[in-house]
């Protein structure tokens, strides 16, 4: 166990990327000034840097950086810091804005973004025009589902259908989304913490997504950032049946086997039914057999009585002759 723990390589903090710090709150402290507070997601924040707040584009200089009331030389990803800035009012910046370095890939307002969305729990279907609240980093802004570009397989990301009419629970899609208010987000491939979002509606999370491509407003131009490639269509191998067809075939086989078992069981049931009258006759014959058994001793007595009857028959002439002799003697006298 200890060896396995020792072998785990700790994740590298993205300190080599350009600065991105979403604001959690903005305070006005007497004697110090405006103090924005947030967590450094990527890059490094140092005192003396010139930073810009997107999407409004306010630029200022960082006077000092503090964490837990202690001054820091620099803040690295994961640090919750407060930093003092010059000449910016509390009303100019607020929660949900993103701080970046003006010299190294500064953040810009997002005009629109393409995202891979997976619908988790929605009572109806999601269609173009749906406008729920999107929670991305510290921003909570309503975004419109402008176009459903592709329906995708949520497991491997392969394309299933172009421009679907609707997306239901359990399905995935690539969607073009337009914020209803100024918003700053980034592509997941470039800045992962700013490229994940949840879609909230009806007091629950109805969908989650990752941002594939962002259209930034740079002056009067729109600049694309992130991966703009369309998902690949799912390849079908020859001889491979879709899962549904396989399941249907399996179901048919099971049904056939069941029907065969039923058909085989029917003759057996019929023979069983045919055997019932015979069994009844057998049951009815039992008393007769008992009477027959009871009659056997009487027959034996009858057989035994036959010789006695013969002897009686044989004795009758002798008795008759005896009686005749007696009568003759009486007459002589």
Give a brief rundown of this model.
The protein is α+β, with helices and mostly antiparallel strands and 333 residues long.
Query: What kind of assembly state do the chains in view correspond to?
Result: single chain
Largest sheet: 6 strands, antiparallel, barrel
| Low-pLDDT windows of residues | 237-249, 263-271, 317-321
Tell me the radius of gyration. Answer: 51 Å
Percent in helix: 25-40%
Report the structural category: alpha+beta
Task: Please give a handful of descriptors for the protein shown.
19 strands; 333 residues; globular; six-stranded antiparallel barrel; alpha+beta
3D architecture notes:
It is a single chain. By secondary structure, the chain is an alpha+beta fold. It is built from 2 helices and 19 strands. It has a 6-stranded antiparallel beta barrel with strand order 1-2-8-5-4-9. A 6-stranded antiparallel barrel has the order 10-16-13-12-17-18. The longest helix is centred in the last third of the chain and has 90 residues, at about 245-330. It is globular, with a radius of gyration of 51 Å. About 25% of the residues are buried.
């Amino acid at each position: 166990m200890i060896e396995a723990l020792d072998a785990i390589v700790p994740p590298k903090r993205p300190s080599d990327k350009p600065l991105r710090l979403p604001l959690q709150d903005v305070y006005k402290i007497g004697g110090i000034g405006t103090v924005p507070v947030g967590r450094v997601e990527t890059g490094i924040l140092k005192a003396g840097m010139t930073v810009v707040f997107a999407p409004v584009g306010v630029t200022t200089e960082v006077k000092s950086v503090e964490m837990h009331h202690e001054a820091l030389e620099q803040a690295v990803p994961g640090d919750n810091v407060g930093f003092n800035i010059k000449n910016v009012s509390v009303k100019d910046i607020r929660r949900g804005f993103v701080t970046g370095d003006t010299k190294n890939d500064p953040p810009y307002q997002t005009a629109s973004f393409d995202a891979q969305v997976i619908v988790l729990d929605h009572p109806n279907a999601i269609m173009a025009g749906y406008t729920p609240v999107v929670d991305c980093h510290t921003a909570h802004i309503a975004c419109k589902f402008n176009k459903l570009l592709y329906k995708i397989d949520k497991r491997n990301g392969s394309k299933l259908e172009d421009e679907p009419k609707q997306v239901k629970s359990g399905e995935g899609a690539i969607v073009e989304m337009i914020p209803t208010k100024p918003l700053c987000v980034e592509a997941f491939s470039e800045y992962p913490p700013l490229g994940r979002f949840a879609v909230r509606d009806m007091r629950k999370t109805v969908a989650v997504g990752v941002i594939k491509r962002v259209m930034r407003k740079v002056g009067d131009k729109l600049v694309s950032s992130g991966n703009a490639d369309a998902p690949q269509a799912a390849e079908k191998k020859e001889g491979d049946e879709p899962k549904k067809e396989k399941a249907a075939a399996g179901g048919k086989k099971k049904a056939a086997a069941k029907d065969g078992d039923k058909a085989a069981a029917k003759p057996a049931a019929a023979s069983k039914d045919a055997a019932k009258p015979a069994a009844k006759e057998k049951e009815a014959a039992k008393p007769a057999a008992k009477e027959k058994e009871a009659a056997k001793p009487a027959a034996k007595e009858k057989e035994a009585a036959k010789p006695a009857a013969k002897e009686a028959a044989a004795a009758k002439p002798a008795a008759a002759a005896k009686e005749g002799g007696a009568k003759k003697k009486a007459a002589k006298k």
